[in-house]
Amino acid sequence: MTSAPIALFVYNRPAHTRRAVEALQRNRRAAATDLFIYSDAPKKPEAAAAVQAVRDYICTVGGFRTVTLVERAENQGLARSIIDGVTRLCAEHGRVIVLEDDLETSPHFLEYMNTALKRYEADERVMQIAGYMFSGPLEIDDDALLLPFISSWGWATWQRSWRHFDANAAGYGRLQASRELRRRFDLDGHYNYFRMLRAQQEGRIDSWAIRWYLSVFLRNGLALYPRKTLVRNLGLDGSGVNCAVSDIVQDDVEDSFRVERLPTSIDVSPDAGQVFRNMPVARLSLTAIRNRLAAVFGGQRL
To answer: How far is CA 155 from the centre of its chain?
Structure first.
């Protein structure tokens, strides 16, 4: 089976980028996978040295079938860069695996992604494969389950799904007019995604993910999630440009866990309520605050 290409989006965190790449290199399928690394240009002059350090590192990356570097000449920002990269690779390859520079993956991550992309490629309702799972107990028979919302922390999709991505969030008005739709969008009140969508529409944030979720939601789409997480976010330390100074509880990636039993019924899992109840609650992180302040004022992270 031909492996799906990886789009890895990097900016100004060389240590995070190295850990993300080294984790991918430990995957057995890495040698059969084309890696595309998208490096954004500095937004401000003070970011130039860190961006160059990342670019110096990614020029040395090997262990994949091919490595293609896309070094932006001008700063695009994460949302614009991801939308462009995913759109291009989906058009050229029909599917894509998407990662950011602060995501450390399981040695079985690529195996899971490629198996699931193949298994559900003809099921129009399945619109995303997610690699992350929230912390907390999850007692299910299969190794994965289908849920009615997307993940932005290590994921994959097909051209057939991504073509429905609506960058303008044209369906916002439907949710604004319907309390029932807003409640469903917020996972029966367990997570306030609509507040994020409203912030996007009011120009207070620039999130590709909330627009992708809306696009999937309005088509009654599903995402496949593993029973245990295959991804850990290393960026909740204040180092990220788009990362709030808060933290959430995450489970460690278990190297021994492989997704082998996939659901056969294409519908929202009857166990979805367990996941909804495990939705994360952000907590204040003093380390993240110190790191963010150091980054903002040009100091060293602590």
So the answer is: 5
- What Å distances lie between residue 17 and 51, 54, 59, 295, CA to CA? 11, 7, 12, 17
Q: Is the CB of residue 271 less than 8 Å from the CB of residue 145?
A: yes
> Is the pTM here over 0.85, yes or no?
yes
Strands 103-105 and 126-130, bridge-based pairing: unpaired
Under CATH, which number does the domain 6-164+219-296 receive?
A: 3.90.550.10
For the chain, the domains span 6-164+219-296
Spell out the per-residue pLDDT of the chain, length 302, in tens: 689 999 999 999 999 999 999 999 999 999 999 999 999 999 999 999 999 999 999 999 999 999 999 999 999 999 999 999 999 999 999 999 999 999 999 999 999 999 999 999 999 999 999 999 999 889 899 999 999 999 999 999 999 999 999 999 999 999 999 999 999 999 999 999 999 999 999 999 999 999 999 999 999 999 999 999 999 999 885 555 544 445 788 999 999 999 999 999 999 999 999 999 988 865 543 443 344 334 444 433 32
- Helix/strand number for the chain, H first, E second: 11, 12
* Contact (CB, 8 A) for 131 and 24: no
3-state DSSP helix/strand/coil % of the chain, to nearest 5: 35, 15, 45
Q: Which residues 6+ apart lie within 8 Å of 50 measured at CB?
A: 12, 13, 14
Distances (CA, A) of 146 to 143, 150, 267: 11, 10, 7
- Identity of the residue numbered 155: W
Angle CA(123)–CA(105)–CA(94) in degrees, nearest 5? 35
| Amino acid present at 252 | D
